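[Q] Does anyone have a clean C-alpha cell version of this?
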Amino acid sequence: MSMNIFGRSDGLEALRLRVRRFVDDEAIPQEDPALAHDLDRLDAVARALREKAKSAGIYAPQLPKALGGLELSWRDRAVVLEELGRSFLGPLAANCAPPDQPNMINLIQLGSPAQKARYLMPLVQGDIRSCFAMTEPAPGAGSDPSMLQTFASRRGGKWVLNGRKWFISGATNAAFAIVLAQTDEGATLFVVDADQLGYRVVRNVPSMDGFQIGGHGEIELRDCELGDEAVLGEVGRGFAYAQARLEPARVSHCMRFIGRASRAMEIAEDYVRTRESFGQPLADLQQVQAMVADSHIDLHASRLMTWHVAALMDAGEPVKEESSMTKVFVSEAVCRVADRAAQMMGALGMSEDTPVSLILRELRPFRIYDGASEVHRASLARRILKSAPRSR
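[A] Here you go.
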C-alpha cells in the first residue's frame, strides 16, 4: 500500500513497523484473559508498558513534541492507532487510550497554567489516570446530554456539586475527574480531585467488555465543594466543550478498533487454513470464503471513511456529519468482522483460548459508546432532510 497517496509523512512506514514490533513483542505477550477485569493488575501492566513504549519511541502519538509526544497528523495517527489497536494493551502502553487521550486534549485547549501543571503533565507522563464524568442514571443525561441532572450551585464563594454519574470509564483509581455539571449559567466542566470531600466512586459497574483500565465506575457527588480554580474553560460552555472532544474521540476509537477487528480476522484466517472438516480445509468452503471477503470489504470501507475524516481534521474542516457517519458505520462493521471471525472458529471462537471472543465482547459496546447508532442516525437524518432542496 502506498502511504503518500493519502498525504501521509514519508517516515510513517518505518514508524508503523516499529509500532507493530512493539505490539507483537511487548503488548500481545502480556494479554492474559484474567487481566481483562483485574483493574489493579491492569494498571500495573500498563505502567510498565508505558516505560517500554517511551524507550521504543512510540509514546503519545497524539501529543505535541513539546510534551514528549510524536505530534502526528490525524492521517498519520490513523495508521499508528490501528497498529496499536491490534492489542488490548497497545493504546494503554502508548498513552493514547480513552478517557485520558481526550482529557489531555481538553486540558491542553482549556486548562489554566495551574491546571496544566497539576493535572496535564502527570497525565502526559502516565503517572496518573483520569476519567470524564458525563453519563448519569435515569432520568439524567445519557444519549441526550440536555437531561443533565448533576448541578453545581454557588454557595459562600464556592461551587457545590451534587449528582450521580455512572458508566464512567476509567473511574476506579483515577486521580481526578472532569465532571460535566449544570449551573445557573449553563453546563460547565469542573476538574475534581478523586480525594476531594464529597466525591466518591461507589462501585465498578460490571461490563461485558474487558481491558478497560479503571473499569466503568459509578460516582456520587454529595455537597462536593470546589473553588473557581476547578472550572475548566469558561462557565456555561460545558456542552460545547463536551461536543468538541467527542468528534476526535469517536474517530480515534474507530482507528483503534479497526486494528482490533483486523487481528480477530487474522486469527480466524490462520485457523481456517489449517482446520479440516468434511475432508477439506475450512478455507476451501465457499461460505467461509464469503465471510472472509465480506470482512475485508468492511475493513477497507472502515479505513477509507476514517482516513477521510482524518484528512478533513488535518485541514481544519468541520467533521460533525462525517465523523457521525463514520462512527456508525465503523462501529457496526468491526462488530460484524469480529462476529464472523468467532463464527469461522466455531467453539474455539467462543472460548478464551484465543483473543477473538474478548475482541467481540469489546467491540459490541462501541455501537452505544460515544453515541448510540440510533441517535447518530436520527440526528444525521434531521440535518440531511433540513438541508435538502425542495423537489420541483
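[Q] Thanks! Anything notable?
[A] Residues 130-232 form a domain with the Butyryl-CoA Dehydrogenase, subunit A; domain 2 fold (CATH 2.40.110.10).
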